[in-house]
User: What shape does this take?
Amino acid sequence: MNVWTEQIRREVEGGGRTIMNNHRRRGWRQLRAVAPMAAIVLVIAACSSSDDEASAATTMPPPGPSTTTATTESPTAGAAPVTDAAPTTVTVPALTVDEALAVSDAYIEAFNNGDTDAVLALFTSDVALSEKYTGMTASFEAIDRAFFEQHLAWSTTQGTTFTSPECAVTEEGTGAAVTVLCEFGWLYAAERAVDAPPVPTVLTMVVTADGISQAAFEYPPEFGLAAFDRWLYANQSDDLEGVEYGDWDSVSEAEQGGTLRAQYVEEWAASLEADDSDPAAVLADYLEVWNTEDAEAVMVFYAEDAVVENHPTVGGVLATGKSEILVIEARLDAAQGSTGTMEYLNMEVSGDTVTFDNIFYNGSGECFSSAGSEATIENDLITLIVWGDTDADLC
Assistant: This one.
């Protein structure tokens, strides 16, 4: 029984187990003396029957918690009938609504206090953990407990908290297992630093007398502050081990990564106060990350509904939305090889628009170039890139 159970269940009347086992002993049957020889035979038979009964009584298994009704062997012809033992009755302790909600409250409080041991103590030893990203995964996918503990350590060491939690017991009612649904905002260090909205999260947990036996997390399709991720890739690309989500092999690495991430968040927030938004700087950071040949990393620079038009290196295609743009970026990664690079020339800024020329060399040394490209930057995100016409003179 967990520690929390001892505290929460103080007012619950203790259920027990009632075991009823009635055994009846057979009595001797009166014998009529018909003839001396017949009497001797009957006495021997009766003694043999008594010995068999005693042997069976000594080998009968002790009563236990099983609810299965015992069966008996067919009685010997002429013997008194044997009565079956009464079935075992087990009383299963039930949780009240208040007790189940007290567990969910304890989970949120422990997390917000950064007490990972207290969080883990609320789980049963075989807790089933899962997660789902709305619109991306069709169903919940299992989470390895070791990974969950690492994520927990990474989150709490950077000061992550659950904001505005609201929990309620579902319509399934109460009983030995109670389902509790909680909604809250997942506020990481970066979001807190700039007063950005938290990540909306739904947590469904099944609470039993032994603890939380199931916990399922549901997140939006993408979360994390894109502006901070862009700054991170542009300024700390050589020191990202453990800093990014999921980049851990142990709890200690996750703790170190969370601590370092919190430090970088402070540096990033300070840089925001010192500098005004600069579209050219955003595009320059984008170019620096682009040359690392990491298509996924490049995507943090795009708005969700961004548009890319007339890209010269992939046949002048039109891509709308981050998923289509990612396809282009992945194709460029494959095309450029390990030595491919891009340069921007003649950058000029007018409001949110940056005009520039570019030169691109693929892994084979082939040169592609275009002049008069335009990029629109809004809220530090690229919303539109229209690549210019090919200009071989730039190569």
